[in-house]
Amino acid sequence: MDAAPSKPTDSFFLRHEFLIRRLHSLCGLIPVGLYMVIHLLANASIVNGVESFQNIVYQIHSLGKALVVVEWVFIFLPILFHALLGFVFIYYSKNNLSNYPYRGNYRYVAQRISGMIAFVFIFAHVLHLNGLIHADWFRESIADAIGIAQFRPYNAASTAANALHNPLVMFFYLVGMLACVFHFANGLWTMGITWGVWVTPKAQDLASKICLGIGVLVSIIGISALFGFWQVDVDKAKKREIEMYEQRSKDGSIYADEHKLSQPLRKSGAGGK
């Protein structure tokens, strides 16, 4: 007798849904969510001045060539894994209007919408500030022409501030950042349910308030970072950054690399000696 045709429930995803959902939620917290919080905290250091932010960037780039490995293993690949699984969940999701409480329904839908906004924002953010290829020919022949890959690590504050000087760009970053924070905070609450941390209505209500507080706090940090970059005097920041670069490359506390300087400073010869 012929075998019965495969049903949708025979798919790999549905057969391993329990494990996949837990890996997805865990990845959303560590490393993706944790990295987002650290990233926003680092950016918010700009409110303490150009030197504070630049020193943090120096610490990050002290990893040298290992930085690329760290970025892909602990940042980009986990983000892609979490995002692609999120789209799979959306594909397999059903109409939940009759299955969820009224407030929970809004959170269910908002989590998916914020996730899609966050995905678009993160891709655009990486493209806008760092580009896709770390090579001189790409930056000089393509990136500069279309206005991407604007960030330079050794001119961190001035290039970041210059990239955000357009009000529309700043608004895009604000919306994208808030979408990421909401997705993280609301996902943290959902994760607690997925892992059975809070199962009673009372525990869920308390967890909801805690997650809301975390979301508000992280949002304030992110807004502080954007506001801080908006206030940067680009010309003064460039001058201070090149002074720091010359001093620290001379005493050996950073890797001297003129390609991590902004283009105008490289052409002037700074850092090339």
Task: Look up the CATH topology.
Answer: 3 helical TM bundles of succinate and fumarate reductases
Average pLDDT for all residues: 88
Q: Which class in CATH terms?
A: Mainly Alpha
Shape: elongated
Cα-based radius of gyration, to the nearest Å: 22 Å
| Proportion of helical residues | over 70%
Strand fraction equals under 5%
Q: What is the succession of H and E elements? A: HHHHHHHHHHH
CATH 2nd-level architecture: Up-down Bundle
Count of discrete alpha- or pi-helical segments spanning 4 or more residues? 11
Uncertain stretches: 1-8, 266-273
Number of domains: 1
Largest sheet: none
Question: How many DSSP-defined strands?
Answer: 0
Distance between the termini: 80 Å
Structural classification: mainly alpha
How would you characterize this protein structure?
The chain has helices at 12-15, 17-44, 50-61, 66-92, 102-129, 136-146, 156-163, 167-194, 201-230, 234-250, 263-267. By secondary structure, it is mostly helical. The protein has a single domain (19-181, 217-267), classed as Up-down Bundle (3 helical TM bundles of succinate and fumarate reductases), CATH 1.20.1300. α2 (17-44) packs across α4, α2 crosses α8 and α8 (167-194) packs antiparallel against α9. The termini are far apart.
Supply the key terms:
mainly alpha, 3 helical TM bundles of succinate and fumarate reductases, disordered C terminus, elongated, 11 helices, 273 residues, disordered N terminus
Short description:
With 273 residues, the chain is mainly α.
